[in-house]
């Protein structure tokens, strides 16, 4: 039996896509999907549990932000480092380590007796999540080499990535209402147990990359830069863009990332080899997840605010209301990767997905204080779900396509990094826009003391303003990403016959 590291992932070196098939590959896909679902769920499942956790542990509203920020800081700043680590020491080792560590941190968070313990557990979740996420995606990229099977596998992965956030809202609401906020952490143990067992038994042992060395200056520059950017955007969201803790860290983060980019062209063994991001399709995939991550934040956060605060939905009902979006995103991710991507390539999928999201956001601007779910929310949720599925299904497949096995981990980490950075930008930008729009509405309409009805209208004005901005973000993404991505299917270069001697040198090394 050939291991996943025996040949590049459906690239020119394996034109037929028929070598190195692991007979247990579909079971491995189930293991990877379980692990990825755990990571994606954790991004939203705690959001609905935070008020209950705050009451139980007695921390302040200002402190509540750190339960989210601690995870984002460690996760975002370590992704590229952990992706390269997976390439150097073996993806199975980093995959299982990430699972065990994430489970342990979740158990500690669920058992937290105070705010410091909870925040520490969330930071540790971010560390092990950064180790787990790129390992899972790179395992997928190196396990499936046949073009048709690869399309199906990435369709499943895209379905999990697109639908996981909505499922997290549903699961978080159900667990918080019926059990306790602590179960929003404990539930990770179930997913981890399944993935650890399957990973230990099914994933083949993978060799280290021979002669590979870690780019320490690159690690320090990119990790420091990402930390500063995420921290700066978090402070901008909770305070203002003019505070030194916001703009100062943003400037420092930008400078460190510029230094990182300059160093990568000179380093002997760069952390992020320029050949990965200089490919137009891969660069387009990374830009797609960054822009989509910024815009998608408006769907999840502000729509949940609207449903719970304005319409009076419970946490469980809000999660159930998101199910049509979850269903459509999963369906379009699978169909897009199996039917559209092999035939048309990523460009039409990205443009269509971004434009569908734009239409969904514009549709949501018609919400009111007493809107009915069927007439005001169901349609835009389904349209947005279809768009998200097309985008996330394409991004994972395109962002790792044609990458040599020894670079699969850091290429996978680049996708996660773009999504994390996009989410941080969206959090800061859209929170600021919503607050400014709400304040401006009150200033223009208040006469004396504001009434509850006026406050409600001001909040709705803030939500609709955010949805207009999200529509603009997605429309811009359709133009920029559509221009960057190459036309035509990804599989066209791999279909050309390649002489046997041209493929043999790629099998001689022991890539990871």
Describe this structure as you would to a colleague:
- By secondary structure, the chain is mainly alpha-helical.
- Helices cover 77% and strands 0% of the residues.
- α6 packs across α15 (373-399).
- It is globular, with a radius of gyration of 22 Å.
- Mean pLDDT is 82; it is low at 1-19 and 492-512.
Specify the helix fraction band. over 70%
* Major beta-sheet overview: none
Oligomer status = single chain
The CATH first-level class of the largest domain comes to Mainly Alpha
* Strand residue percentage: under 5%
Low-confidence stretches: 1-19, 492-512
CATH architectural grouping of the largest domain: Up-down Bundle
Task: State the end-to-end CA separation.
Answer: 16 Å
Tally of individual helices: 19
Structural class: mainly alpha
Transmembrane segments: 26-46, 66-86, 93-115, 127-144, 156-179, 185-204, 216-234, 246-263, 284-307, 319-337, 349-369, 381-404, 425-443, 463-485
Domain Major facilitator superfamily (MFS) profile: 28-489
Keywords: Cell membrane, Membrane, Transmembrane, Transmembrane helix, Transport
Protein name: MFS transporter
